[in-house]
Amino acid sequence: MSKIEIKHLNKRLIGSKENILNDINLTFDGEKIYGLFGQNGAGKSTLMSLIADYNKTTSGEILLDGQEIHNNQALINKVYYMNQMDMFPKHEKLEKLFKMISNIYPDYDLSLQKELINKFNVDIKKTFNSLSTGYKSIVKIIISLCVPCEFILLDEPTLGLDARNREVFYRELIASYSKNPRTFIISTHIIEEVDQIINEVVFIKDGRVKINNSVDDIRSQSYSVSGPAEDVDSYVQGIHILEKDRLGRYETVHFMHELPENPRPESVDVEKMKLQKLLVYIMNSEEVE
Ligand SMILES: Nc1ncnc2c1ncn2[C@@H]1O[C@H](COP(=O)(O)OP(=O)(O)OP(=O)(O)O)[C@@H](O)[C@H]1O
């Protein structure tokens, strides 16, 4: 199974004194779905553009199956980068645009493309330039799911999509992945949207990797316990609580710890903490250390 390894990568823009990315060491394994998170300006798009060889590293290596991707067209062809740049011919009708792309990739999935055009209600007689922000994203999403690449990098794929189309996209992504497992790296600010889809989390802050772990590991021993306040309090007694939300007599407490050994009152519900909340705690605790 293919993998991408990033070793001691630094990126600094010419004329700048500061690195955008600092000593990045990461492995993206085959057939996994990664969430790439971080605040605005953290360096997510820069990292993706380097992997796809749109940009050159200042130092360090990006290897696909042990070989440098940079300037190696056979390897670059295994990576597809969907981003916010509009690089398609603006005045061509979409039907021609789709044809051009499918001609570039020998095993492009034309039947999936047809299905997705219908599901997203895309009018292929329109030009790319005339599309709304959301429909521009949809066209890019369709192409990303149909190209026969082993590594698909999606940079804020749902930008401008309404709720229905976001749902269609994630449903189709899962269907496509199940049928044809490959690696997806999805950069998004809306962690709730992907927390059921991704296997791995990479969190970048100020150009450095702060979290690089599986979702299962991150979510193990992290709970949200809710119910009548007095029952919850007695159940979680002695556990370090990260946050308590209260609504009248009802409360929810969040903690990163094993479940208490005390018997759980029937009135109390236990669930895994939401990934978004958890990542915020992990980042905050790192800052305190
Ligand atoms: N061509 C450029 N010229 C100047 N600064 C740049 C350039 N490209 C990136 N940067 C800077 O590098 C940093 C990282 O940007 P990048 O777009 O990679 O972040 P991001 O995590 O994708 O952010 P966002 O979530 O806002 O899209 C930012 O401070 C950005 O301003």
From TrEMBL:
Transmembrane stretches in the record are: none
GO terms of molecular function? ATP binding; ATP hydrolysis activity
Question: Which PROSITE patterns is this protein grouped with?
Answer: ABC_TRANSPORTER_2 (PS50893)
Q: What keywords sit in the KW lines?
A: ATP-binding, Nucleotide-binding
The ABC transporter domain is annotated at: 4-231
* Keyword Amino-acid biosynthesis on entry: no
Q: Which Pfam families match?
A: ABC_tran
The cross-references to SMART domains, in alphabetical order and at most eight, read: AAA
Name of this chain's protein: ABC transporter ATP-binding protein
The organism's taxonomic lineage, starting at the top: Bacteria, Bacillati, Bacillota, Bacilli, Lactobacillales
